[in-house]
Every structure is written in structure tokens, then in C-alpha cells.
Design brief:
It is a single chain. About 25% of the residues lie in helices and about 15% in strands. It is an alpha+beta fold.
Length: about 160
């Protein structure tokens, strides 16, 4: 199956350009872009994929969508078995396709690394979240489970249960 990847700080790689949808010969991909704002930055740059769907009833797994992606946001995983009890279950939404947050990543939305551009992200200059990004998330979403202090509390709660 397909996966939507993230940058090391947790921002999404998809910029909502829709090239994957245009490249798909089976018309299995639907993308709807939206603009990033200072309070809701989901990916580097000005746009992100607000809606992202892949209809696996139509997908022929040709890989043309992956070749078309300019940011390497879309890749294939090693999960090849796709089956489900309903047709609706085989239409994967953005939350089904997004790569899980790796250790140390912050959940989007949050600002880009201060002093960087979207080009710095594409070139791999950004290697993880900065204290400034953590402070922004802490100020806007104090209960966010991806913050280091909330991870410790979550692990402690799970250990008590």
C-alpha cells in the first residue's frame, strides 16, 4: 500500500500539488489542497494536502504516482495484502496513509524550523524538531501527546493501568 511520509520534525511532505492524481491512469487518487497559515502549518511552503484519498478498488499499483511526486511524499510500503469487508473500507483517507510519527517528531500543525525555507526541508537540512517548535506546540496544544513531557506522563499512566 501507499504511505504519505513526513519530515524529521513531523511536518508532512505532501504539498497538495496533485501531480500524483494527474499521473494515475486508474483515477484512483483524489487530492484537495489548502493553504498553510501561521497557526496551521502542515507542510513546508504555502500549501498542503488537506484531503488525500486513494481508492484501492481502482488502484492498479503501477507506481506512476510515486514517480510523479516532487517531494517524495508518496512511497510504497511492504504491505501488499489489502482486503476488507466493505467497499468503503478500501478507500484510504489521509489519516490512514500518513506515516506514523517516529520518536522525537511533533504532530503537525506547527511552524517550520526558524530560519529555514521549504528548500531546506527538501534538501534534508532539517533533522528534527527544534526547541522553538516544541515551545510553539506547548503554547498552542499543551496536551499534545507528541511533546516530550506528555510522553513521559502517558507512559507512566500506561504502566499504572
Amino acid at each position: 500500500r501507499h504511505q504519505l511520509n513526513r519530515y524529521p520534525d513531523g511536518l508532512e511532505k505532501c504539498i497538495g500539488c496533485e501531480l500524483c492524481a494527474w499521473a494515475c491512469p486508474a483515477d484512483a487518487i483524489y487530492v484537495e489542497a489548502d493553504s498553510n497559515t501561521p497557526d496551521a502549518q502542515y507542510s513546508p511552503g504555502e500549501r498542503y494536502g488537506r484531503v488525500y484519498q486513494i481508492n484501492y478498488l481502482r488502484c492498479i499499483f503501477c507506481g506512476l504516482c510515486i514517480e510523479a511526486c516532487p517531494t517524495r511524499a508518496l512511497t510504497m510500503t511492504n504491505e501488499y495484502e489489502l482486503a476488507g469487508p466493505t467497499r468503503e473500507g478500501l478507500i484510504y483517507e489521509k489519516q490512514d496513509l500518513l506515516a506514523p510519527l517516529a520518536e522525537g517528531m511533533l504532530a503537525a500543525p506547527h511552524p517550520m524550523v526558524p530560519g529555514t525555507t521549504d528548500t531546506d526541508y527538501y534538501r534534508g537540512v532539517v533533522t528534527g524538531p527544534t526547541p522553538e517548535q516544541e515551545a510553539w506546540v506547548r503554547a498552542h496544544r499543551p496536551d499534545d501527546p507528541t511533546l516530550p513531557e506528555n510522553k513521559v506522563a502517558t507512559v507512566a499512566k500506561e504502566a499504572q493501568a
